[in-house]
Amino acid sequence: MRWTASATLAALLLTACGSTPLPPWPSTPAAQRANAPAPLPRAQQGTVVPAPLGQQHQQPSLQPPQRAAVVSTPLPPTAPLVVQNEGPMAPPYGAAVAARFPNPPISYNTPGLAQDRRAFTTNAELGQWLRSLTDAVPRGTTRTKLLNLGTSQRGEPIQGLLLTRAAGTDPASLDTSGRPTVVLIGQQHGDEPAGSEALLVISSELAQGLLEPLLDRINVVVVPRANPDGAEVGTRVTANGVDMNRDHLLLNTPEARALAQVINDYRPILVVDAHEYTVVGRYLQKFNAVQRYDALLQYATTANYPEFLTKASQEWYHQPMVTALKAQGITSDWYYTTSTNLQDKRISMGGTQPDTGRNVNGLKNTVSLLIETRGVGIGRMHIQRRVHSQVTAISSALRTTAERAANLEQVRSFVARDVSAQACRDQVVIEAAATPTQRDLDFLDPETGADRSIRVDWNSSLTLRAVKSRARPCGYWLAAGSTAAVERLRLLGLQVMRVAEPGAMLAETYRETAREAGDRQDVIGTIAGGTGIVRVEVSTVRSAVDAPAGSFYVPLNQPRANLAIAALEPDTQNSYFANRLIDDLGQMARVMATPALVFEETD
Question: Do 233 and 81 touch, CB atoms closer than 8 A?
């Protein structure tokens, strides 16, 4: 199929030619109450999850799941498997600190939480749990479907569960159901098990428990374990040593690609990413203190994240989640971390780079939430409390989505049109950074367990500083040889078109002014699994550029345009040029006027 850009792109790519009215936004609690939808069923009100939630399930019988074919993806050689002992360990702190984290009044019962169990739920047990929920006799109108999302680098299945009351379980049926979809993801890092165990509980309660009535208003996709290989050996990274939660823009690993496909298929309005964080380690070394909070929370904080999604994240999700946790006696704060450099005592909120699931899914125009519980480095200590924290926080997010379904769809519609309408207009932020400030942060004294407030240098991601900005282009031109970059852009859900007939465009080309080799960095340090990057400084030169047949055009009048900016501006550490998916600056250009070219669909 061929078309001219001037005639067809507007209709095809959701271009908004005029100003788009903002959806109404309640500015006061009274207005919020006036605009709130009808209350949910009585069992869903409040924040307390009754004891039967964790006690009613029996451990399922186990049979190894059928393994799908291994995804053929070029990857560095995997390291030898070294299975880590998940049994008893020497507690990293004494009884006074441990007493601050009593067990909850609920006892959750997944395979990995069984009494006297040494290992967390295996991938075979996880698959059997999900299958048991799809094999059950249907109750009412609830439908469940086991999702085979792909395979890990060592051939382990990555599985999910779809729960819905739509007419069917295919993505088209969900789209026409009038219900927004939520995607819940656990254990991107293999040494963070509480999220995975909690999502088994959540999946069961959605299928046949206290959360099931929420399916009258939402669809849910649960992916309890995104990194099966890391979970098997208790390591943060994938089998080839990559931190997959820094791989969501580059998509080098099959695990990150599987999650990208889930987001493309089901178009969620909310993505929740369940993690755990380091409790002692460098905090004890730097501050002689132990982490205090049960849960650390954050939403998407990266350049060009739509303002209205930030507002929804804060007012409709974060605030109610804090309230729900507090009602259960669970402490929380903003997510933060610190460098592995023991001389660097700065504390930073989650990163601002468009590489994590939290930030990349945000640029896909979702509310994207991070829930981190205290767990890394303490083995099975407090595991019931950690799971309870995750279940409470995730349940709050599900309730908010159900209560705000109509509001969220209105915001999403506005954001899609608004992002598309910004093509060729104004400025765009190429790179942003957190704002340095200070705050008093509460820790625990490692001897007495008492609160200890420490004044720290605090890098806030809630207010971003624009480090680098440029005029926003209409799109990007890529040379015909840029097939690796084009493949990744499509996996991100971006439309890429092939030039069918040669022509010329008004564009800006990049001129290199400086270069150095380096590694990708986050606020912790060097990102695991990287192969080194090329950091360049560039200037832009306005000129006419020939676009040969077979080259590519990435228009920015599409809803996920901000992802194209993150990937294609070459002078950032996550760009496709810096990471060698594009070999030469001459293979790309910023198109500064709507091109009068003939395009054809790409496969």
Answer: yes
Q: How is domain 107-421 classified at the CATH fold level?
A: Aminopeptidase (3.40.630)
CA distance 406 to 487: 34
> Do 14 and 559 contact (CB within 8 A), yes or no?
yes
Q: At what angle do helices 483-491 and 254-266 cross, to 10 degrees?
A: 50
Choose among 313, 486, 272, 298: nearest CA to 415: 313
Q: Side chain identity at 404, as an amino acid letter?
A: R
- What is the arrangement of strands in the sheet containing 427-444, beginning at the earlier edge strand? 290-291, 427-444, 451-471, 347-349, 336-338
Domain positions in the chain: 107-421, 473-601
C-alpha–C-alpha distance, residues 311 and 334, integer Å: 16
Distance (Å, rounded) from C-alpha 360 to C-alpha 378? 30
| Residues sharing a CB contact under 8 Å with residue 172, sequence separation 6 or more, in sequence order | none
Contact 440, 38 (CB under 8 A): no
225 vs 216: CA distance, rounded Å: 26
The DSSP result for 269-310, as a single string, is SEEEEEEEEESSHHHHHHHS-EE--SEEEEE--STT--HHHH
Distance of CA 111 to the CA centre of its chain: 26
CB–CB of 197/274 below 8 Å? no
Task: Assign 497 to helix, strand or coil.
Answer: strand
What are the tokens at 256?
């990150």
What are the residue ranges in the chain where pLDDT is below 50?
1-23, 26-87
In a 10 Å sphere around its CB, with 0-12 CB exposed, 13-18 middle and 19+ buried, how is residue 442 labelled? middle
| Tokens found for residue 380 | 């099975």
Distance CA 190, CA 193 (A): 7
How far apart (Å, rounded) are the C-alpha atoms in residues 435 and 551?
40
For the chain, what is the radius of gyration of the CA atoms? Answer: 24
Are 336 and 349 in contact by the 8 Å Cβ rule? The answer is yes
Q: How far apart are the C-alpha atoms of 139 and 232, rounded to whole Å?
A: 34
Phi, psi of 44 (to 5 degrees): -100, -5
Residues whose CB is less than 8 angstroms from the CB of residue 213 and which lie 6 or more positions away in sequence, other chains included:
40, 41, 43, 44
pLDDT value of position 141: 87
Largest Cα–Cα distance of the chain, in whole Å?
74
CA distance 135 to 126: 14
Question: Which residues, other chains included, contact 115 with Cβ-Cβ below 8 Å and sequence gap of 6+?
Answer: none
Q: What is the pLDDT of residue 137?
A: 56
* Strands, sheet with 332-334, edge to edge from the N-terminal-most edge strand: 143-151, 157-164, 219-223, 181-186, 270-278, 367-376, 295-299, 332-334
How many whole angstroms separate alpha carbon 345 and alpha carbon 455?
11
Residues 127-179: pLDDT tens digits?
999 999 997 656 678 999 999 999 999 999 999 999 999 999 999 999 999 99
Q: What does the buried/exposed string (b/e) look like for 211-237 if buried means 16 or more CB atoms within 10 Å of the residue's CB?
A: bbbbbebbbbbbbbbbbbbbbbbbbbb
How far apart CA 602 and CA 498 sit, in angstroms, is 6
The per-residue pLDDT for 155 is 97
First to last CA, the chain: 11
